[in-house]
Structure formats: structure tokens, C-alpha cells
Design goal:
alpha+beta; Nuclear Transport Factor 2, Chain: A; six-stranded mixed beta sheet; globular
Length: about 150
């Protein structure tokens, strides 16, 4: 499938819109039953930042994320189609519900669609600066939890 087609671009932008506007069930319907979701952040310490295999596993991961954070900003900054996949750049602001801390991120997503126009593979890619900030954020959250 050619990921440079206007149809794929529109579908990918739609997935971002659904997530950003809180239409979680509609967003999940765009994911293949056997989706492979890869995150380049180690999720062993923080389960909402881990990879997933299959729609139900991914649903569990995202539901945990949404129980942990309020998504207050999710802006699509750009979409970059290539023949084999399509990439986006997103600016997101997430407020941690328990502490009020803010996680302000820029993240790239890479997606692979199949012929029935659903996403079969999705990668969430954070740069080194984000990973360092994320580790500090996790340390802060864990420290705050121990104080309570």
C-alpha cells in the first residue's frame, strides 16, 4: 500500500483528531485487531509508556494513560508520508491527575496501514531530550507517591 496517497494522509490525520478530541472508542476502531504498538521508552517502570501487541493490550495501555493523565493539548504539527509508512509530529500536554505535574512533549508517530484502511503497526518515537525529561518526571512522581 502506498502511504503517500491523500486517502492514507487523511486517515492518519483523522486518527490524530479522534485522539485529540477524546473520541477514544472511534480512535481504537482504526487499530487492527493484531496491531503492533512500539514505544521507544522503557515501560517497565511506567506501564502507560510501554509497547503493546493486539487491540485489547493497546486499549488497556491507553486506558491506563487516560486514568493517569488529562490530555489538555494534542496538536498535529506535521504529516510526512513515505511509500512504506506515514509519520507525524505532535505536540502534547498531559497533566498528571494525582500530582498536577505537566508533561509537555513532542513525539513522532509512524504508522503502517493495510488494504482495509486500518493501522497494523504504530510506533511512538521520543527523542533523547524527551526521554531524559520523562525519566525525571517518573522519578518525581514516584518520590511524590512515597511521601503520601
Amino acid at each position: 500500500m502506498d502511504h503517500t496517497s491523500p486517502e492514507i494522509r487523511e486517515l492518519f490525520m483523522r486518527a490524530h483528531e479522534l485522539w485529540g478530541t477524546g473520541r477514544f472508542d472511534d480512535f481504537m476502531q482504526m487499530m487492527h485487531e493484531d496491531i503492533l504498538y512500539i514505544v521507544n521508552v522503557d515501560g517497565q517502570q511506567v506501564p502507560y509508556a510501554m509497547s503493546a501487541v493486539g487491540r485489547e493490550d493497546l486499549r488497556d495501555r491507553f486506558e491506563l494513560l487516560l486514568r493517569t493523565f488529562n490530555v489538555t493539548h494534542f496538536e498535529l504539527l506535521g504529516v510526512y508520508p513515505e511509500p512504506e509508512h506515514i509519520t507525524s509530529l505532535v505536540h502534547g500536554i498531559y497533566h498528571h491527575k494525582a500530582t498536577g505535574e505537566i508533561l509537555d512533549i513532542k513525539v513522532r508517530f509512524r504508522a503502517w496501514f493495510i488494504h482495509d484502511k486500518i493501522i497494523t503497526r504504530l510506533e511512538e518515537i521520543h527523542d533523547a531530550r524527551y526521554i531524559e525529561a520523562f525519566e525525571r518526571f517518573v522519578f518525581f512522581i514516584e518520590s511524590a507517591a512515597q511521601i503520601d
